[in-house]
Design a protein that fits this description.
mainly alpha; 3-stranded antiparallel β-sheet; 13 helices; 67% helix
Amino acid sequence: MNEVIRTTMKTPIEIALGVDENGMTTARRLYAFLELNPGNFSHWCKRNIVENEFATENEDYVRFVFEDETPTGGKIQRDDYKLTAHFAKKLSVKGNSAKAEEAREYFTRLEEKVKQKVMDISQLPPEMQMFKQLWDMQANTFLEQKRQAEKIEQLEDKTNKQTEVLQTVKDTFANSGTEEETIQWVNKCINKIADSPNFTYAFGNRYAAARNESYNRLSAKAGCRLDQKVRNAIARAEEKGYTKAQINSINKLSVIMSDKRLKEIYIGVIKEMMIAYCVEIA
């Protein structure tokens, strides 16, 4: 009953934004209220919240995970962020729609209420003000220590991951000697790189994108044009009277494997990409 009363006392915009007792909304509620493209939410959060150099986690926003239902009735874990009134207003400033203006006005008024509440604290007895200051200092110290611990843990995890991947690369390739084994190893690595959540590409097939990146890296390191080398190899094969099947089998990878220098450089490129994208080979 009390929950119903509290809900009905909220204004329509507070209900739409899901504003809690601390004046905080969520990224998903704000995004929906601003009527932004539903399919661009993750990119918007990454650009405006996570990678925002002027925003501090656990001060301007707090990340949390919730369980959502899929269209087929299943369950999925989704990310969201609790936003302070001040930070939500800054995010709303980026928009130029009527909804963005409405959100900015609301969060501005909310900030004024928060400031008024802070001013009212000055009416407390000196000893209570002192206790509050001590509490605030301890809370800030705790949050800062937590942030530093998380950063150290993330750095250690990344370092350990890269060490494991490097060792895996060495162990995996140690048993690959023939050209056929090398090609199998390369293809396996390319597929793993493409499947890695750390691999990003602009468009098209992710496996083709991973392979093209490896060829571009090789071209840059070796100072060569693979396309031209393939054309030259096909021309030589035609002059020697190779069959159509043999000519059709000539591609960038076969050209690389036939050139000792390019092969060595390309193996190094694949290893670099495995480490860069934190890929493990089973």
